Each structure stands twice: as C-alpha cells, then as structure tokens.
Amino acid sequence: MDLLPEVVNWKTGGVLKRLATAGVLKGDVNGTVNAPTSKTTLKMPVEILVYAAEGIGITEYQLLRLRPNRGAREFRTVTGGVFHQSGGATRDLVPVESRRIAVRTYALVLPNLTPGEYGILAPGAVVSSNASAQLGKMYTFRLE
What is the distance between the alpha carbons of residues 104 and 79, in angstroms, rounded to a whole number? Predict the structure, then answer.
C-alpha cells in the first residue's frame, strides 16, 4: 500500500515571546496537516519501504508523532530556546531503525508504537523559523 502525501502548512509560534525579549528568546515552527486523521490506516507490526532520491540518506527522513489540534494534526519542527534554536523535531520525533534493501531502497522498521497519527517527513520539507505561509508535504498514516 502506498502512503499518500498530505500538505503541511508551516506556522511560527512564540512571536510575542520573541518581541517581548527583543529576539533573545526564539519562537517555534510547527507543521500542521489539515484533517483530523490520515486516510491511511495501518496495524502493527509495520515496515515501510522508502526509496531515497539520489544523494539523500535514509537518516534524513523523520518519523513524527502527530498531535491532534482543532480538527487538524500538528508537530513541532524547531524548538525555541535562549540565544539559539535547536533544529529537528525533538518533541515529536520517533526513533526508527532502518536497513538497506537495495540501492537507495530502505525498510523503516517501526518500533512498538502506540495507536495514533504519524507521518514521515521527507528531507527538504522542513522550513526555516522565518517562514510563514509556506507549504511542504508529509506521508501520513494512522496506527490502530
């Protein structure tokens, strides 16, 4: 079964925090996927095959837990901090093992995950913290 991509809308958060501290505290960038659930439902155990583009490593793909929020799903991609921003979706990132199947083809072996909404964020879909109203894509699924 193919995982269909869904559009990710990027939004920044913490604007008041940034303004009130003259830019010392940074904001967050969150990705939002419209619709409360994915159209694709899977059951554990799950193994997902990924065909990586030329020059892209499998470690550049991220498995993320999506959180329900007002009829949509969202995830954090950049966590704000004092004097810096840490890249990566550490709050919602799910560690995953991979193994090479063939040239540029990998199997993602999902850990024993709890039921819920998940997505695979492809390389290049993450935007900078200065982005607003930009779009990306994510391959989503729901685990039952």
Answer: 31
- 24-36 as b/e: b if 16+ CB within 10 A: ebbbbbbbbbeee
CA distance 66 to 142: 10
Could you say which DSSP state residue 83 is in?
A: S
Every domain of the chain and the residues it spans: 5-143
Using CA atoms, how far apart are residues 85 and 27, in angstroms rounded to an integer?
Answer: 8
Statement: the pTM of the whole predicted model exceeds 0.90: no
pLDDT tens sequence across 55-102: 999 988 889 999 999 999 999 865 544 444 455 547 888 988 999 999
